[in-house]
Design brief:
It contains 6 helices and 6 strands; from the N terminus they run αβααβββααβαβ. By secondary structure, it is an alpha/beta fold. Residues about 1-15 have low confidence and may be disordered.
Length: about 210
Amino acid sequence: MSSSIESAFENDYLESDYEQLQRSVSIIKQSFTPTIAILGSEDANELARDKAFGSLVEMLSPLGCPVQGSVSTRNSQSINVNLDDFVVRFTDFDNYCKPDIRTNGDLSAIEHALKSYLDNFQSSSEELGTHSLWNGYFRHLISDLPIAPQETFSHPVACLIAISSRNTSPIETLSDLYNRGRDAQIPGYIDRDYLRYYVLLHDDDVDNIST
C-alpha cells in the first residue's frame, strides 16, 4: 500500500514537472520568433489611439500572438512543416534607427508588476513557476532582444506599411512611407531586402467604406 501511495505521488510530481517543462518549451518557442516592423502613417496611429491603443504597433500585436490557424513553414531541408501556435512579433520601424533601443521595449513595467506580485504572494498552494505573470515575465525577458549583428531574431523579416481610410492622399502617403523606410539610417548589418506589405485600415464605427 505504501509503495502504491509513493508511486502515486511520484507520478503526480512527474506530471506536474512535465507540464511545467511543456509550458517553458512553449514560451521559448513563442519568444524566438520572426520580427515584423510597422511603418504607419499618422492617421493610422490616430485610428489606433481612437480605439484606446497606445500606438499602431500595440493594436496589431495581439494578431501575432499567436497567429490564428496553422502556419506552413519550410525547414532547412526545404520540407514544408505546419506549425500551430505560431507567433510573430511586431515592432516600430523607428526602433531600427536607434540601435540602442530594444525591439520589444523596456522591461521596467513588467518588472514592477512582478515585484508587486511577489510582495503580495501568499497562497502556498499556487506554484510561482506556473503563474501567468511569471510566465509573462519570462517570455518578455528572453524575447526582449537587443538589435545586434549576431541576434537576427530582432532583425525584420517584413515591414507593414500602413495607412487608414481617413487618409486624403493615400498614394502619396504610401510613397512617402516607402521612401522613408528605404532611406532610413538603419544599421548596415540588417538586410534591407525584407518583404514589404501595404495595409489599409478602416474604422467601421466612423463610416462605411462602401458608400
